[in-house]
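Ligand: 1,3-dihydroxyacetonephosphate. Inputs:
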Amino acid sequence: MKLTEVYKDALKNHYSLGAFNFYNLESMKSILGAAEKLNSPVIIAVSESALKYFGFEYLKNAIISARKTYSVPFFVHLDHGKTFDACVTAIDCGFDSVMIDGSALPFEENVSLTKKVVDFAHSHNIQVEAELGKLKGVEDDVSSNEALFTDPKEAKLFIEKTGVDSLAIAIGTSHGVNKFVGEAKIRVDILTQIEKEIPNTPLVLHGASSIPQKLTDEINALGGTLKNAKGVPEDVLEEVSTKHNICKINVDSDLRMATTVAIRRYLSNNPAEVDPRKYLTEAMKEMEALVTHKIKDVMKTKSM
Ligand code: G3H
Ligand code: 13P
Ligand code: ZN
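Predicted complex:
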């Protein structure tokens, strides 16, 4: 099954796929374990720095092993590839899909870099995601600078010029644990305009962790110092998955928090324990529970 076919089904049947970041066997097995139990397709995403951390050969073989281990459809995806070469490396490593992130470049340069990756990737039967607009940090006053959001007319031109398979858009989300000061502001109105211009293009929402208050509170109670942590409310994620054309929702920070909470909790309750398998098992359980909840209750991913 190809990712583009699942996206087509997601557009038609109003759900999205979770794209969960991983960087080691524990995170990889937790995400795939959750998807397998639900029998729901999932995207497992590797950033350039995660690929380096995992190691090219180790990751290549982990992907081969995972393809033999799980029967649920899963897609290995390069997250925020910055260069053509990074995309080629991911394809050599056995990925199904790559993101070329030219969002920091001027429009025409983003178009030509994306087009170059699309031509190469498609000739290898690999899907491509690109990004238009900028995801800004909480320090930037996004609401007063419309230029940061994806321009719907530009999005149409971008799709026509590049032939890219899916498009990441900027509608007010950002990466990390500090996304908003005060109320979360997500511009669903801009999403509506974009999907009018490109109704058949699967859209992608980055920076979509919800940073559950419960996890923040527990981390802080156990010695953490997270300040002003705030994410995207889950009802907004459900709305853009089921009533709009968002087909892929990226989650990294929530998994980092789940891991951190589980390890802090375990070590606090078992101060004499030194076997990492004990607390890493707890981290895996916490990650798996989080992924299960996201897939089933938030993204409403269809079971196969
Ligand atoms: O969008 C970025 C992802 O959260 C990956 O971050 O480069 O620290 O692995 P990373
Ligand atoms: P979060 O930091 O909100 O988890 O975003 C992850 C992401 O967009 C990965 O590409
Ligand atoms: Zn991202």
